């Protein structure tokens, strides 16, 4: 059923005649009459009582039903167009973003604040979780954008925004604290404080240790760097962290040392599904991230 023809019907009823309706919808009267006849044939029902020339057009019982629904459809279409325009102009919308606990405060808090200042009518929902959970949430459609390390899977696109070397954080009295640099192999005998399994960084560190020839001794798992560093200061173990995070959360009783492993890096990225069509709000957020990190 053509919405255009339903609009013709409404114009005929509201205008009271075919002539007035033809002028309003900008088609000839014979073409208008033919369109209504075809609609009646399609519905197998007479919609209009056609009296003598000059008499008012009246709706049949079937015509009243069609007229009421036609009005609703036309109003719904107009409302849909208005809402789409509002979305395009970022006057309304909802954006769900997954943020990693690592680096969000340092790198993304200013971006979120700037986005809200530019687009105050967009509702932003922030979900904090580890990188592995972020990827699953993207695939499930629970979030639109996420922060994580560069993904391995081909179904995800990414934009790297920060590339940091990993540093080793030691308690002050640790034997390795006197060395200028620490090789990853030197950690073979040390207890390791690491992040929960949902953090892709945990997988990255574990694989690097295996490549260095040892199985890491992971004594405890944390979800926040502050607590992990408190454990290091207390002598529980050592911790590998991105340089930005280690320096940001510098804890008394600990010392930060560079690693002699240049390939072990924290490449924080914004990720999204390759096949996804980002919302207008999502596109605006991605553009703002590119603006904030022009070298990305």
UniProtKB/TrEMBL annotation:
InterPro entries: HTH-type_LysR_regulators, LysR_HTH_N, LysR_subst-bd, WH-like_DNA-bd_sf, WH_DNA-bd_sf. One of its GO terms (molecular function) is DNA binding. One of its GO terms (cellular component) is cytosol. The keyword Cell inner membrane does not apply. Gene3D superfamilies: 3.40.190.290, Winged helix-like DNA-binding domain superfamily/Winged helix DNA-binding domain. Pfam families: HTH_1 (PF00126), LysR_substrate (PF03466). Residues 1-60 form the HTH lysR-type domain. SUPFAM superfamilies: Periplasmic binding protein-like II, Winged helix' DNA-binding domain. Keywords: DNA-binding, Transcription, Transcription regulation. Belongs to the LysR transcriptional regulatory family. This is HTH-type transcriptional regulator GltC. The lineage of its organism: Bacteria, Pseudomonadati, Pseudomonadota, Gammaproteobacteria, Oceanospirillales. The gene is gltC_1.
